[in-house]
Design brief:
The complex is a heterodimer of chains A (596) and B (351).
Chain A lengths: L8 H7 L1 H5 L6 H9 L3 H12 L2 H7 L4 H4 L2 H4 L6 H11 L18 E5 L3 H10 L5 E5 L8 H4 L8 H12 L4 E3 L7 H5 L5 E4 L5 E2 L14 E3 H9 L9 E5 L3 H12 L4 E5 L11 H9 L4 E2 L2 E9 L2 E14 L5 E5 L5 E4 L2 E4 L3 E2 L33 E3 L2 H4 L4 H19 L11 E6 L1 E3 L2 E2 L18 H6 L11 H8 L7 E5 L9 H5 L5 E4 L4 H6 L12 E4 L7 E5 L8 H5 L5 E9 L12
Parallel strand pairs in A: 1-2, 1-4, 2-3, 4-16, 6-14, 7-8, 7-14, 8-9
Antiparallel strand pairs in A: 5-15, 10-11, 11-12, 11-13, 17-24, 18-19, 20-24, 21-23, 22-23
Chain B lengths: L37 H15 L7 E5 L3 H4 L9 E4 L5 H11 L4 E7 H5 L3 H10 L3 E7 L2 E2 L5 E2 L22 H8 L3 E6 L3 H13 L3 E7 L15 H7 E3 L1 E8 L12 E5 L4 E7 L9 H13 L3 E8 L6 H5 L11 H4 L3 H11 L1
Parallel strand pairs in B: 1-2, 1-3, 3-4, 4-8, 7-8, 9-13
Antiparallel strand pairs in B: 5-6, 7-13, 10-12, 11-12
Helix pairs in contact in B: 1-7, 3-5
Classes of the chains: A alpha/beta (596), B alpha/beta (351).
Chain lengths: 596, 351
């Protein structure tokens, strides 16, 4: 194998699994250390800079970081990264004086942002402090988009949402509420220097089966129903409710129903339990609120009597896989099942809809009627129009919307400066040794064996009585410290300098995970098989150094390294060092880079 | 000295031996020796050897004297019996223990100061008697605990860290072991676990006095240019005569080697050592030839390593003394007090 080039930022970035997995590349271990140190405000600001909505995401994020967390590979459950983020938001001081100030002088460029959700707000936050005049249009009177209309208040209190939206609006952004944009052509003619489309995927998929029309009064589209609940237009539902669909919207629908009078609430899903799109913890929360989930049932008919819904008829199916591993649901032949109910909520998916974009205004659409968007620059085929969030590539989640927003802001800034938007700024990397003394390191390298701590919940009956009562209470300071201690500090990297190595094997002998091997070089697949412990996880790199005196190579399997620093501690020559690699993704012109 | 506790987590794919243990289960406390000490690698080799042989930790007694090397039994086999004795007196304490309980595996760990200076006589007599044990000398050529004076195994002409040349002659522990009648003699290097671990395994399986001299560089005081026990010097002057490939227990052996390159050495208990010859002329059963080979190469400044001598029909102290079969603590009152008839018989024999 070749000598590993550690000067490429991606190499060590990948080792920080959580940060690498995060679409916005939030430096997770850095803020977790700050939380452990009780520096909640600093931890919050790192988050704010990177993901814009720490308090919101600390409650609602889809947490791609957690399945990636190294702790899950060496112990069982990942660090509760998401809920630690919330801790930073819950315990921070007033941060307003740390935020960027509205630009004193505008730069004369005007940007229109369609939709007031996370994607548009992220773009506006990045651009406004630089002097851009940002105008955000939304059909609703308040900013927040889907975060406000779709996420129930018992998961995300309004105060948190208002606070974090306001931080952005206070940067001198013009928010035009209650205004729906009906024509892209008209918008283009208003002379904006760039237009960002962040209007989400606003259309709930319907279920066109017999009885749909007849029982229309008691069949509701999930996301529309949720937004009506959110605005207080709907405050009750029948006693018996069936929710169709297995995603997070379905979970929000069933749990909201339980709070609006639903006593017998069921979720019925086509697929199996494991394959459901909903996050595992959301399924858990629903089950905890006495909502059973029925699987492998395909809705066949809405039954009704005298124009009133009486229930839903389901066909029983099972999953069969073809040789290519594709799943097919085939009827089992068992008798159909009928579930009586008063109301049905249909949460079987969301779609994009762009009826307001004229197809002849320079924006190309693909065969699925989605705009053609460059995933790197977020640009459409109209050089002035950019897309982000659910509007770009279909329904994803908030953290993706934020990541799109950052990229779009960079593109818009470069466009307005007349620069090539295809050229992207490199991330900023700061490297610093953590050695303080012979046996002292500036990070806590004592590995705790603690299992993941549960977040305390509001007592169930109290939670179900009030739809605005937040269910999760969040970690207290003590629990937060314990959970934060579970973080393995993956950003404190094991850096090897072959020229200093005397090949004494001290690191090999002390490594608790048998990660380090000194051996003859070979092809990667062959080498992986004959290391101190087999390196079977191909998604994790081997760190190879070939500049040793004996001509052998040092191979370190990054997979289950605990970053405990014992290799560096036991190294007599300092060939191993623990160095903190802070990788900061570049934002548009660094305006929101608070350290810069 | 390391203050961080070695985390209990281990690699999820770590192999287990037939007792269900991983090699981590054979570790002891974290070493307090200097970072990079060769002794820690020997510790790791002992751990690996015991793991691979699937030895039950409670069947092992580790005995040591005084010195850096004698601290190491704390760092391996945390669940075994141990005795940290007086300086140079490991052999007599171990001999006593062995006589009392012959069923345990005895690991004597010592250093060049402990065995070649203050305990030199103890070492020689223990070899002479054929005590059934593994005698490991962790040989670094300096007194590390007192900051690097030459020890009795430092080569004449080698230089100390401060540049002083050693004018005394060196004691070659391997030579003494051969001369005193050790039935298994080997030399290895802490920086070469591939060679060392199988030698330790073979020594454990051997009946009688098994001696291994392990050159173990002292990174703090004896790893500089001019030293003959540094990593670089040993690597450059290492003359391995053979390589112990594997050990099997009575199972039929199928190996694909060119004829004459491998020798199968059968031990008393039926285990077989596959010895790959690196020097075709070297015969591990010829004591006289071994001694002259060693002299010859030592004169050229080469360090001969590998399995240097093994006696085919080895015996141990218990055979010589015709002692009772089991450990003394298993003897019942009936055997210990056989009655007046037996006493009468003994007395009659003495008249």
């Amino acid at each position: 194998m070749k000598h590993t080039d550690i000067s490429v930022p991606d190499y060590f970035h990948k080792v920080v699994d959580c940060q690498w997995a995060c679409p916005a590349h939030t430096p997770v271990p850095e803020y977790i250390r700050l939380i452990a140190a009780g520096r909640y405000t600093d931890a919050y600001m790192i988050n704010w800079e990177s993901n814009v909505f720490p308090g919101i995401l600390g409650r609602t994020c889809d947490r791609p970081c957690e399945p990636a967390c190294r702790r899950g590979r060496v112990e069982k459950d990942p660090v509760a990264i998401c809920r630690l983020k919330r801790v930073a938001a819950d315990f921070k001081d007033d941060i307003r004086d740390r935020l960027p100030k509205p630009a004193e002088k505008k730069n004369g460029k005007r940007i229109a942002l369609v939709g007031g959700g996370p994607a548009s707000l992220a773009v506006a936050r990045d651009l406004a402090p630089m002097g851009y005049e940002c105008v955000v249009f939304d059909q609703d009177p308040q900013a927040g988009g889907m975060m406000r209309t779709q996420i129930p208040k018992f998961r995300l209190p309004e105060s948190v949402l208002d606070e974090e939206c306001q931080y952005i609006l206070d940067l001198g952004i013009e928010f035009v509420g209650g205004k729906r944009i009906d024509s892209m052509k008209a918008l283009l003619s208003e002379g904006f220097d760039a237009i960002f489309v962040g209007c989400g995927a606003p259309r709930g998929r319907d279920l066109d089966i017999p009885g749909r029309k007849e029982a229309v009064k008691n069949i509701h589209i999930g996301i529309d129903w949720l937004s009506s609940v959110s605005f207080g237009h709907i405050d009750k539902i029948g006693k018996r409710v069936i929710v169709l669909g297995g995603g997070n919207t379905a979970m929000d629908c069933c749990r909201s129903s339980r709070r609006l009078g639903g006593e017998d609430v069921k979720v019925v899903v086509r697929s199996g339990f494991e394959e459901m799109k909903a996050s595992p913890w959301e399924k858990e929360d629903a089950i905890h609120e006495d909502i059973p989930i029925f699987n492998f049932l395909v809705p066949k008919e809405f039954t009704h009597e005298n124009g009133k819904l009486t229930g839903v008829l389901f066909e029983k199916v099972k999953a069969e896989y073809d040789p290519k591993g594709r799943r097919k649901l085939v009827p089992t032949g068992e008798p159909d099942q009928h579930f009586p109910c008063d109301d049905v909520l249909v949460a079987v998916g969301q779609e994009n809809a762009f009826p307001w974009i004229e197809r002849d205004c320079g924006i190309e659409f693909d065969k699925w009627d989605m705009p053609k968007v460059d995933p790197k620059t977020m640009a459409s085929s109209n050089p002035k129009v950019f897309f982000g969030g659910d509007a770009a590539f279909g329904p994803k989640n908030i953290i993706w919307a934020v990541a799109h927003g950052h990229e779009a802001a960079i593109s818009i800034d470069r466009l307005c400066r007349g620069e090539d938007i295809g050229v992207r700024p490199a991330p900023q990397v700061t490297i610093a040794s953590q050695k303080m003394g012979i046996h002292e390191w500036s990070y806590d390298n004592e590995i705790t064996l603690d299992k993941r701590y549960r977040v305390p919940h509001r007592e169930k009956s109290a939670a179900l009585r009030n739809i605005r009562a937040e269910v999760e209470l969040g970690y207290d300071v003590e629990l937060a410290l314990k959970e934060a201690e579970r973080c393995l500090n993956c950003d404190v990297q094991t850096v090897f300098t072959g020229q200093l190595c005397i090949e004494c094997d001290a690191c090999v002998d002390i490594c608790p995970m048998d990660c380090i091997t000194f051996t003859e070089n070979g092809e990667e697949t062959e080498l992986r098989g004959r290391l101190q412990a087999p390196a079977k996880n191909l998604t994790q790199d081997l760190y190879v150094a070939n500049n040793l005196k004996t001509g052998r190579v040092m191979v370190k399997d990054e997979d289950v390294c605990l970053h405990c620093g014992l290799c560096a501690e036991r190294c007599p020559t300092g060939a191993w060092d623990m160095q903190k690699y802070l990788i900061d993704m570049t934002l548009a012109e660094q305006a929101c880079h608070l350290k810069a | 000295m390391t203050y961080v506790v070695k985390p209990k987590f281990h690699h999820p794919e770590l192999p287990k031996n037939k007792l269900g243990f991983t090699h981590r289960d054979y570790e002891g406390a974290v070493s307090t020796l200097c970072a990079g000490c060769g002794h820690d690698s020997i510790t790791a080799s002992i751990v690996e050897a015991c793991f691979e042989l699937a030895i039950e930790p409670h069947r092992v007694a580790k005995v040591s004297g005084i010195g850096c090397s004698s601290k190491t039994p704390t760092y391996f086999l945390g669940n075994s019996h141990g005795f940290n004795s007086v300086h140079g007196r490991m052999p007599s304490v171990l001999t006593g223990a062995n006589l009392a309980n012959r069923d345990l595996i005895y690991l004597g760990v010592s250093g060049d100061g402990d065995s070649a200076s203050i305990g030199f006589g103890q070492f020689a007599h223990c070899m002479r008697r054929g005590v059934n044990m593994v005698y490991i000398v962790e040989n670094n050529g300096v007194y590390g605990l007192t900051k690097g004076q030459f020890s009795a195994t430092a080569d004449r002409g080698s230089k100390s860290k401060r540049g002083i040349t050693n004018t005394d002659n060196a004691i070659d522990m391997v030579g003494i072991a051969l001369q005193s009648g050790a039935s298994f003699v080997a030399r290895s290097f802490s920086g070469d676990k591939k060679q060392l671990t199988p030698l330790i395994k073979a020594a454990i399986e051997h009946r009688g006095a098994a001696f291994i001299d392990v050159i173990s560089p002292c990174v703090a005081f004896n790893n500089h240019a001019g030293s003959t026990k540094s990593f670089d010097y040993v690597r450059e002057h290492n003359e391995a005569v053979n390589f112990l490939d594997f050990i099997t227990a009575r199972a039929p052996i199928h190996v694909d080697y060119a004829p004459g390159t491998v020798e199968m050495v059968e031990q008393h208990d039926g285990t077989v050592l596959a010895l790959r010859k690196l020097n075709a002329e070297y015969d591990v059963h010829d004591l006289e030839a071994a001694m002259s080979f060693l002299h010859h190469h030592a004169a050229k400044g080469q360090i001969v390593t590998g399995l240097l001598y093994v006696e085919n029909e080895s015996e141990d102290l218990h055979c010589h003394l015709n002692t009772v079969e089991g450990p003394l603590n298993t003897l019942s009152e009936k055997e210990l007090c056989p009655g007046s008839a037996a006493l009468e018989k003994i007395n009659a024999a003495l008249r």
